[in-house]
């Protein structure tokens, strides 16, 4: 028992000495002098200067072409073009299923995929260029 206690105390003492004897070398911090950019405040909107290639638009016009189909009974519903999670509505129109429809709407520049819904029909469509085509038939 005395021998076991001696071993435990020796291990604890060795651990305490070895962990406290190691010190990290302290490096001198380098001095960095910040350089402030020279910015002149514009007093009017006309004073603002931007690069000639800068695009002010954050949305683009997109044309949608809806291809109607013949129905034996008149079917009329609202066509929605939304974000995939349906949190943003970009376009809506009440149209008959048999009607062809062309329309133009604004779509945010960053959007590349939209969800088109008409009643129980839902299609996810990739936006390529400035045109979207939609029909009621399944893919």
TrEMBL record:
It comes from the Bacteria. Residues 1-25 form the signal peptide. It comes from Limnovirga soli. Keywords: Signal. This is Auto-transporter adhesin head GIN domain-containing protein. PROSITE patterns: PROKAR_LIPOPROTEIN.
């Amino acid at each position: 028992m005395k021998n076991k206690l001696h071993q435990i105390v020796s291990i604890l003492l060795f651990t305490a000495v070895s962990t406290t004897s190691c010190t990290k070398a302290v490096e001198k911090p380098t001095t960095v002098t910040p350089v402030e950019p020279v910015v002149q405040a514009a007093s009017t909107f006309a004073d603002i200067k931007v690069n000639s290639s800068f695009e002010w638009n954050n949305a683009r016009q997109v044309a949608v072409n809806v291809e109607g189909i013949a129905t034996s009974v008149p079917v009329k519903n609202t066509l929605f073009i939304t974000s995939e999670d349906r949190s943003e509505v970009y376009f809506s129109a009440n149209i008959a299923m048999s009607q062809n429809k062309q329309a133009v709407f604004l779509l945010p520049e960053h959007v590349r995929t939209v969800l088109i819904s008409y009643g129980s029909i839902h299609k996810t469509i990739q936006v390529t260029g400035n045109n979207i085509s939609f029909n009621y038939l399944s893919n």
